[in-house]
Write a structure and sequence with these properties.
The protein is an alpha+beta fold. The protein contains 6 helices and 20 strands. It folds into 2 domains: about 20-60 and about 305-390, no CATH class; about 70-125 and about 145-290, no CATH class. The chain is about 35% helix and about 30% strand. Strands 1, 2, 7, 8, 9, 12, 13, 14 and 15 form a 9-stranded antiparallel β-sheet that branches. The protein is flat and about 75 Å long.
Length: about 400
């Protein structure tokens, strides 16, 4: 059943839907499906936690190996055959053979990457829902609000609750794209595709020195507008901006070329990935002029952050999996409000303790073959949440 009520504004409306409160068997069936999802999530969390530890330790060993073998280059203008096949460290300004062009807008720049970003003025739908129980029914009140905004992707208005009056074009007349220089160098050394991919610090390009490329295009600020009135755009109007990454050569408006620091394997005049004994490939690039120690310190910090992020994701997946698998207990006592609330708190505490213990235990198993002492310590810590939980349970009274 659906009931509509208009707020008086064409840009928003409210829809109320209602359905009969699900019975016990229906809720039990839904809970059973959730248990299956929980089991899959629970098993995937073990895989995520275990493989993450192996990856973290392998990466750390590869970085330590790289730091012990890396050779700083005295000059980037000449290629020394003595360093053939070795892991080298160098720093210098970027250079490219040819400028990047966008002939449609009369724009060119000496840079590693040039990105054209096209946005269209479109309707966007927002939802705000709330559920409540009334007369034995579950009712859902949804407020739909429509705003016009600049968006880089086409918003499909066919999915709107009310498309009439909020219809968007199905495609953009001008497409976004990113041009990449085919040849990027630091001194006499050519960067591999993997190193070029790491140059992604995009900055918006000022258009103040350019003229309007066409009669139907107007430049306002740092945007080209396909609009009759850029200050009052209509749905379907376009605006185009440009971004660059890795400035090469001197630009009178942007300054000197960007400097980068690279650690990679030398093969002739090519800089390619270096394969370590642990199996990882080292090809590192950072903006600026960094020492060898600074480069590897940043890599270790990045590895640590990634490791803890995946540990947190693994723990959360395990917690959610356990919560879904034990949800059936909550469903069985759903008819008794006081018992239901107590059971809900107890189930969450149970899921928290078990997820914490199993996560620590899985991490310790992952470390076992690499650092046995740390694995033993983590294994002991994994028992701590259960011990704390048991200590808070009052002892049974003697009969």
């Amino acid at each position: 059943f659906q009931q509509f009520s208009d707020t008086g504004s064409k840009k928003e409306h409210v829809k109320i839907t209602s359905q009969a409160k699900p019975g016990f068997l229906e809720r039990l069936s839904e809970t059973s499906g959730g248990m299956l999802v929980g089991l899959v999530t629970f098993l995937l969390s073990f895989y995520l936690l275990f493989t993450n530890e192996g990856r973290a330790l392998r990466t750390a060993k590869s970085l330590d190996e790289g730091l012990s073998l890396v050779v700083p280059l005295d000059s980037i203008q000449a290629v020394s055959q003595e360093n053939e096949g070795r892991l080298v460290h160098l720093a210098g300004p970027l250079s490219t053979s040819k400028p990047l062009f966008d002939p449609s807008y009369g724009l060119s720049i000496h840079a590693v990457k040039l990105k054209r970003n096209v946005e269209m003025y479109q309707w966007v739908e927002y939802e705000d829902s709330k559920e409540y129980e009334e007369n034995g029914e579950i009712k859902k009140e949804t407020k739909y609000t429509y705003n016009t905004e600049w968006k880089s992707e086409v918003v499909n208005s066919k999915n709107f609750d009310r498309e009439i009056g909020h219809k968007n074009p199905s495609a953009m007349a001008v497409e976004s794209f990113t041009a990449v220089s085919p040849n990027v160098q630091v001194g006499s050394f050519v960067l591999s595709k993997g190193l070029v991919d790491k140059i992604d610090d995009f900055k918006q390009l000022s258009l103040s020195n350019l003229e309007d490329p066409h009669a139907d295009v107007t430049r306002t600020g740092d945007y080209f507008y396909h609009s009759e009135n850029p200050r009052r755009p209509e749905v379907g109007d376009l605006r185009v901006s440009f971004f660059y990454a890795g400035l090469s050569g001197y630009n009178p408006h942007l300054g000197s070329a960007d400097k980068v620091t690279v650690v990679a394997r030398q093969r002739g005049d090519q800089l390619i990935p270096y394969r370590t004994k642990s199996g990882d490939a080292l090809q590192i690039l950072y903006p600026g002029d960094l020492s060898v120690e600074e480069v590897f310190q940043k890599e270790h910090e990045s590895n640590t952050m990634k490791t803890w992020a995946l540990r947190g994701a693994g723990w959360l997946a395990m917690f959610v999996g356990i919560s879904l698998m034990t949800r059936i207990i909550y469903t069985l006592v759903d008819w008794f409000p006081l018992v239901r609330d107590l059971v809900n708190v107890g189930l969450k505490a149970f899921a928290f303790c078990v997820a914490s213990s199993l996560s620590l235990l899985t991490i310790s198993v992952g470390w076992f073959f690499y650092r046995p002492l740390w694995a033993l310590l983590l294994g002991l810590l994994s028992v701590l949440p259960i011990v704390i939980a048991r200590s808070r349970v009052p002892p049974k009274k003697h009969q």
